[in-house]
Structures are given as C-alpha cells and as structure tokens.
Amino acid sequence: MRFDEAYSGKVFIGSCPDFEKSEAVIYGMPMDWTVSFRPGSRFGPARIREASVGLEEYSPYLDRHLTEVKYFDAGDIPLPFGNASRSLAMIEEFAGKILDRGKFPLGLGGEHLVTWGVIRAVHKRRKDFALIHIDAHADLREEYEGEELSHATPIRKAVDLIGPENVFSFGIRSGTREEFQFAARSGMHLAKFDVAEPLKRALPKLKGRHVYVTIDIDVLDPAFAPGTGTAEAGGITSRELLETVRLLAQADVRIIGADVVEVAPVYDPTEQTQIVAAKLVREILLGWVKKS
To answer: A GO term (biological process) for this protein (predicted)?
Structure first.
C-alpha cells in the first residue's frame, strides 16, 4: 500500500480524506511478534479507531475541536507476520515518508518494539531530537531470551543511537536491577513511578528542543487499562496521563511525532483501554500537532 492512498477501513473519528491537506498522519503498526507474556496488541490500532466514534470532537482540556486540525488516517502498515526485522524496516520507511512530507506522524501500536523503527526514521532526518518515553517498563535490556529485537529493548537501542542525555523516561516501575543501574550510570533521565511532576522538573532541559514522544498504555494502572500485554500494578491514572499531554501541549518544546502502543483489546471486554487510548490520541492531535 502507498502511505498516502485512501484507506477503505474504519478511520479515526474526524479524519480528513485528503492526505495533501493534512497536518498529521495516523497510521497503525499491528505487530506483536516479540511479546514475552500476552500477545494481541496487533489488534490495537483497529480497536482504537473503532472506539474513537464514541468521542466528543471537542476537548475541554485544551479548548479545541477536532475540526481545527487536519489529519489523515493512512490505515495499518501490512507488516509480515513473525518477521520483526522486516517489519521494523517497513515502519521506518513508512514513517520516513510522512516526515519527508512535513507532516506529524502519529503511530498506533502494536508492541513497543515498533517505536524503534520510527526512532530510526526520525534520527535519519534530525540528529538533535530528544525522546520522551512514558511507560511502566524501562525497556532497557540489550536482549530478551537471546533476542535483540524485543519489546523489552527499544529504549536501550534509542539510548545507544541518540545518546543517554537525550532520553527521558517517566512512570517506570518495572525492570531488572541491571536496567535501573544502567539508567543511573549512563546519564539518561529516568523517573520512577510518576509522570506529571517529574516531567515538570525535566521540561527546562527540553526547552526549545525537538521531541518525539512514545507512550506505552501500560503506564496506566491496570484499573484504568487492563487491555495490555504486560500489565503492571501501581500505575498512574488516566486523568494523570491526560494531564501529561496537556503539560507537553503548553511546554516550550517542538513535538515532531508520537505513538501510543501496547493496547491489546482481547484482555479488556469493557473496552476502557481502547477508549482511553482513543481519547489520548484526540488530545495529542489537538495539543501537539500545532507545535510540530
């Protein structure tokens, strides 16, 4: 499929049918080839789109309406089942084309390894960006069970690529002792347990910078997002996560792209996980695209 051709499936609410007129492009990365616990996040992008029909198009958080932002839903990248390396190459190419057209890429996952493909695309075009990583897990392993391409490794790969001083992780409450030790000695920024308050303290270091943001839905407590592959007790609330989006919308940073990953709908018959993910996407569109 071409990245800019019309998508015949269900689209995110309010999507513009014209790629050329769009400011942002939503695209799905339906991959869960390397998950270590519960698969199913490859179905996340489709269910987030379906849940979006229940949203109001107006955000009282940001006092903006979806008609104020033009965004195109490109559908899902047709990733080859089970082939992580080729899938990442396809994601990198797809995201790169969006960036080359001057548009804001907004990816829907899929397991968290998909972010590595996007980071590679961003890095080829802008060497000086910072990464904001919001997650329950450190994702700083060099390998998992002998596999370097794993949903447990994307942030370590990002550290190695862009430098630890450019990686800012928030909400982390799970990882090996070695991962936390690596974070401490490497010089990267890692805030345990909370997101909004440590983000406020970190924003002066990010002032004026280009930033890519990756959000793993499992940063939320399972009470708010049970539909994820590796749920982790002790997380933040959905209200706190929405407040984080607002903080970044008001901050002096230039957000150049984002993704929301690890929604696994099969584990949440109430659909609250995909509902909060859809609302998160709405807030990102309204709060961050204008700052691209």
So the answer is: spermidine biosynthetic process
Q: Is 135 annotated as a binding residue?
A: yes
Residue 253, token pair as written in the block: 């940073």
pTM of whole model > 0.85? Answer: yes
- Residue 139 marked in a binding site: yes
218 is in an annotated binding site: yes
48-77 pLDDT, tens digit each: 999 999 999 999 999 999 999 999 999 999
The gap from C-alpha 223 to its chain's centroid, in whole angstroms, comes to 20
Per the annotation, does 65 bind a ligand? Answer: no
Q: Per residue in 125-179, pLDDT tens?
A: 999 999 999 999 999 999 998 899 999 999 999 999 999 999 999 999 999 999 9
Q: Confirm or deny that 100 is annotated as ligand binding.
A: no
Q: How far apart are CA 213 and CA 95, in angstroms?
A: 14
> CA-to-CA distance for 161 and 89, rounded, in angstroms?
16
Known binder of ligand: residue 194? no
Query: How far is it, in rounded angstroms, from Cα 208 to Cα 279?
Result: 27
Q: Which of 151, 147, 149, 148 lies closest to 138 in space, CA to CA? A: 151
Is the distance from CB of 48 to CB of 281 less than 8 angstroms?
yes
CB neighbours of residue 55 within 10 Å: 17
Residue 102: predicted pLDDT? 96
Cα distances from 84 to residues 35, 109, 163, 236, in angstroms, run: 11, 14, 24, 30
Strand arrangement, sheet containing 71-76: 71-76, 24-29, 104-109, 254-261, 210-216, 130-134, 167-172, 189-192
d(CA 263, CA 214): 13
200 — pLDDT class (breaks 50, 70, 90): very high
